[in-house]
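Open question from group meeting: does this chain pack into something compact, or does most of it stay loose? Before anyone orders reagents, we agreed to write out a predicted structure and look at it together. Recording both the input and the output here so the notebook holds the full record.
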Amino acid sequence: MSDNVVEVRNLEFAWQAKLGNVLSIPTFDLARGERCFLRGPSGTGKTTLLSLLGGMVVPDSGTISVDGIDVGQLNGPRRDRFRADRIGYIFQMFNLIPYLSPLQNVLLPCRFSSQRLARIDGEPAAEASRLLSQLGLSTDIIHRRAAALSVGQQQRVAAARALIGKPAIVIADEPTSSLDSDARGSFIELLFDECQRNGTSVLFVSHDQALASHFDRSLDLAEINQVVSA
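C-alpha cells returned:
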C-alpha cells in the first residue's frame, strides 16, 4: 500500500472545452494521516478538485488515485460505492437531513456502505453517540430534529457523520465559514483528535488563511495548478 492516500498525476479538467481548463495539476500527493490545508480565492477550482477526488466528476486526462483506487477508471455506480466506502465529506452547508435526529444523520453512511459499517468497533449507534460526544454535543440533543440545532451543532453532526466507519480521508469544503474564530479553532482541534485516532487524512479547503497554522501543511491551489486564471 502506498504511503499516500491521494496521488494526482497530470490532471487536466475543464467543465466546457471551449472555456479552457479549470485545473491543470502535474502532481499532488496527500500522505496517509496528513492534515493539509488547501487555500485559494473563490472560483479558482478548489471545489472542483474535491469533486474530482470524490469521483463526482472524472478528469479529462491524467490519473487520480485515492486510497489505492484509480477513480477515473470506475463507472458511475462504482464511483458512488468508492466514495461511500472510503471518503468522509463535510460540506459547507453541512447537508444534514433536517427531519432526522443527529444520531440518525451520523448513521447514514453505514446504511450506504457495508465497509464503513464493518469498520465500526461495537454497536453503530454507540459509536455514533461517542463521536457526537467527542465533538462536543451533549446527549440531551442527539435525538432532536437536526433542523432545530444551531449552526455550530449542525457542523459537529456533519463532522461525526464524515468520521463514522473510519474513512481513509475526510474532505472538508469550507465547513467553518459561518463560525466565529474561536469556534473554528475549537472545531478543527476536535476533528483532528478523532482523525488521529483512526489514521484518517484530512484535506481541508478554505480561503481563510488564519486557519492554516492548525495543519501539517498549508498549500495554495495556485502552487500546484498551472492554470493562471479559472
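Observations to bring back to the group:
The mean pLDDT is 91.
The longest strand covers residues 4-13.
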